[in-house]
Amino acid sequence: MRKIFEIAKFEYLKIVKTGSFWASTLFFPIFMVVVMGISGFSSYQASKKAEEGTNLSKVYILDEIDIVPDELMVDPLEKVSSKAEVEDEIKNDSEKVLVHIPSDFLETLKYKVYQKESGDLMRAANVPMMMSTILKSSAIESIQDVKAKMILSGDIASETFVYKDNGEVEKQGFDKYVLPILTMLVFFVAVFISSSFLLQSVSAEKENRMIETMLSIVDKKSLMIGKMIGLMAVVLTQLLIWVVMGGVIMIAADKYMNVSLPIDITKIDWSSLPISLFFIITGFLFFGAVMVGVGAIGTGAEDSRNLSSIFIMLSVAPLYVIQSLIMDPNSLVSKVFTYFPFSSHMVLMLRNSLGTLSTNELIVGMILCVVYVIVAIWVAYKLFELGCLMYNRRATGKEMIEFLFKKKQVH
After folding, report:
1. SS3 letters across the chain
2. pTM of the prediction?
3. What is the mean pLDDT of each successive set of 10 residues along the chain, which is 411 residues long?
């Protein structure tokens, strides 16, 4: 046990002492802050530009079917009887436009806008928006039924309430999806990034033959398990740093920029978090073991990366059918991905967070995940034994099967 923790400590310190680790760890939250800042500033500028775009000095309306009532003709709107009447003004002034509502408008629902070319896309987009509002208001004004006018002129919205298992009624909103999104983010970081660390560590040490020196000091089992523990600690360090930085950024944004979270954290249901952590840990152990085995049988770092891409594609396949997983959890596709070894950890975690997983499915899924981890670690250990000292070639499929089940030594 002492050797395992010594290896874990060595692997942990080897990575956290590098500049690349801190660069990659700090880059993500800083990048997110920069992106959010640019996005917010761009939205502000676009909103400001949109307001400026509506400040047209004159909007001439050529209405051939008299659909726009005179009551709506307030500045800057003005009716004209012909296009020629204001054509010269439109040609020479970019702040004046002509809207032509033709006689066949009710059949085509199309009108024409004439304006001076200025390159101002925002203003060009605002004129149709303004006319859409005017035309709809004109139609609503002709309706005599007060209730119908209120429905058509207002924004219809809804509120959804659900009955909890204890019989209480609770308002449902975006808060329901916060935990699934967070756990998915943590899952990808903990599983895929950390398992790639394992792949790089094993394949690189095999390529430069450092693994020979390490195996002369510790046994293969201690080396493999120690690497997995050490790299899991690296990922936990990354997550802790991101949580702390995220908290500091949100506090600073709320205090100095008056920006607060659009969700109520107190309304988030955290009851599924322990089970989500279980699937994150088993997912890491499973994929970590897979990457150890792949790194061991590859001839080098490049060869191991090529092999690992197969398993990565298998693991992210559920993302392409995620709508089916959420909307129809009892479908054949959902069942397959729920219990398929390379996707079970992520799919079970997601469905449990969303509340679409039955108790029986959860129990069976948790048992299977533990079995998958045990099998993966056993296979990885055997492949580690087989491949860590093979430098000139990759073990064939036949040799791997024989070594797994017959313990045949391959030279």
Report:
1. CHHHHHHHHHHHHHHHCCHHHHHHHHHHHHHHHHHHHHHHHHHHHHHHHHHHHCCCCEEEEEECCCCCCHHHCCCCEEECCCCCCCHHHHHHCCCEEEEEECCCHHHHCCCEEEECCCCCHHHHHHHHHHHHHHHHHHHHHCCCCHHHHHHHHCCCCCCEEEECCCCCEEEECCHHHHHHHHHHHHHHHHHHHHHHHHHHHHHHHHHCCHHHHHHCCCCHHHHHHHHHHHHHHHHHHHHHHHHHHHHHHHHHHHHHCCCCCCCCHHHCCCCCHHHHHHHHHHHHHHHHHHHHHHHHHCCCHHHHHHHHHHHHHHHHHHHHHHHHHHHCCCCHHHHHHHHCCCCHHHHHHHHHHHCCCCHHHHHHHHHHHHHHHHHHHHHHHHHHHHHCCCCCCCCCHHHHHHHHHHCCCCC
2. 0.64
3. 83 83 80 76 65 70 88 85 90 88 90 81 73 84 81 79 75 71 77 70 70 72 80 81 80 69 66 86 86 78 78 82 77 87 88 83 93 91 74 71 65 46
